[in-house]
Amino acid sequence: MTYATLEFTINDGIGRIRLNRPDRLNAMSLDMIGEIIEVIDKCAADSNVRCVMFTGTGRGFCAGADLSSLSERTRGADGKVDVGNSMDTLFNPMIRKIRALEKPVIAAVNGVAAGGGANLALACDIVIAARSARFDQAFVRISLIPDLGGTWFLPHMVGDARARALAMLGTTVPAEQAQEWGMIWQVVDDAQLDAEATALAKGLADGPTLALGSIKRAINASHTSDLSKQLDMERDLQRDLGRSEDFTEGVTAFLQKRPAKFAGR
What we know:
globular, Lyase 2-enoyl-coa Hydratase, Chain  A, domain 2
């Protein structure tokens, strides 16, 4: 299926979502958010997709929300822009779907990731960035707060003090500093980004999909769970995984001293 604001392909178990509005630095229009949600739903339903990867076309990953799109289509009865409505109907459902998808999601950040674009990347499970990339919490410059989960991701990733400063000062964080602070996983040379991200995605796509999804579910739950509840959740997930074909294959491969061939079942 053809999309107006992104490219979506499935190859070698990887569902690749390439934001494709390079003339606007891939700023997220309302149409783009709707298309991302549709594609994430396709990835969830398609057993051939075992890893999802976001990246951007051109010189940037995503410059955040397209403010002109918001201004045109999200006005309330009083004629003023209702940003909260677009959060409820599009932006927040997108982030929830990415976090809930029981398949690994990678962000390959090429160039600027600003505002909602930065937090779209942080919503992914693993972020790999080009050395020239930067993460910019620009919201305060237009009198808004970090959204798309930014006020949740930042404190969990970089700590309270840094999160407050980043949000209140609108500071730009270069890729290497983002890695040092624990915001992202890895920085690579610009020319190597696509190859490194694809290799990472392929490794995950060839992995034990059920276990990867369960890891994601357990870590998501850990932020609001105490140790006792987390231990119970680990028990329940291990019980289910222990009945999977991939567990049998993993143990057999280990005993036979060969690489496992996981099927995602």
